[in-house]
Amino acid sequence: MSLKFRLASRNLFHDRLRFIATIIGIVFSIVLVTVQMGLYVGFRQMVTTMIDHAGADLWIIPAGTKCFEDPSLLDERQRFRALAVSGVAEVTSVVIGYAQWRLPNRTTTPVFMVGSELNGLGLHPWNVVAGRTDDLAIPGAVAVEQSYLPRLGVSGPGDKAEIRDRSVQVAAVTKGIRSFTTTPYVFTELDRARLSTGTPSNKASYLLVRVAPNADVDQVRRDLRAGLTDVEVLTGSEFRNRSRSFWLFGTGAGAALFAGALLGFIVGTVIVAQTLYSSTKDHLNEFATLRAIGSPDRYIYEVIIWQAVLSAIIGFSGAAAIGAIVARMTAESALQVVVTPALTVALLLLTLVMCVGSAIAAIAKVVRIDPTLVFTR
Fold it and tell me: Cβ(354)–Cβ(28) under 8 Å?
């Protein structure tokens, strides 16, 4: 094994300019794939951030709702009907919708309101870094995300603005609750959300259901479906998958990200294949000598594969470092590149597959070598 490795490394490093070009090609390819797949992971997490933090066992949603940000209305009477179902411990209304935030300079910017009861089950702000969630009980109080403060014309708790000609005051500031649509989330109390979005007092966007500790969730779900009309009853996982499916594939965003990743993979494969083929072609006499002295084909193939593996490891190391820098730089951006450990392992395997697969062209060239070539030199 050590002899194969030594021969592979010498072949690979013999032409340093070509080797550097190969590594640059691999790094470019894997960085492109990393960014595209990192955007996919970040986008996938961001589109369901509200659902992930709701803490509800079941969601009662208007029939045909495609995703969380698809604002439709339910009759508030559905809430009381749901409370009458055996096994239901709590039902909370949630109101969402778009509103116009008026800055102190009288310009406006759209915001996405999220309102629910402040006590018990609901959609409450998390990762609060300034102020307190309890302060949302103050008349006109709202919570906003810190990265949107300049856009909203405020600097922190205590600052004021207007929504629908009503004064609001920042009571809490959160970190990391960003919207993939770039429209800032604004948390507030339920009735205030209704006023801000123009939602009637007898309407709600969603109903969050908490099931009693000893109750069967599936049975409660069936009973809710039987007792309510014009609604769907979904688990958090089902609503999460529906939202992701809509935004990633229904809108074409996921296809675009996958297309970019595929392009990077193809570019890297072509570059590595061309380099390995050229390197093998330049060393045909050496490979012919190995065959002439009786080296089995498998031995020669393994030398070429070792060249591919070495290229993959070196190239991936550089790409992983650049990917980590990109992920850190986008951590506070509207759409974060998320590089998880699982994605890192997958990218390493992808790099190995890309490089080893590229070695096929070089192996095919060696297969056709006539061992007598060494005696005609």
Answer: no
Structural contact between residues 62 and 72, judged by C-beta atoms closer than 8 angstroms: yes
Q: Which amino acid, 105?
A: N
Q: Which two tokens stand for residue 253?
A: 């965003």
Question: By C-alpha distance, which of 70, 366, 113, 77 is closest to 239?
Answer: 70
Q: Is the pLDDT of residue 375 over 60?
A: no
Q: Which residue type occupies 232?
A: E
Alpha helices by DSSP H, 15-89:
16-46, 49-52, 77-83
Mean pLDDT calculated for residue range 215-233:
89
Q: What pLDDT digit, counting tens, does each position of 137-177 carry?
A: 888 899 999 888 888 888 888 888 898 888 889 999 998 88
Chain centre distance of CA 89: 33
Question: In 179-205, which positions are buried (b, 16+ CB within 10 angstroms) versus exposed (e)?
Answer: bbeebbbbbbbbebbbbbbebeeeebb
CA distances from 79 to 75, 90, 93, 205, 258 (A): 8, 10, 7, 11, 41
For residue 208, pLDDT over 90 is answered with yes
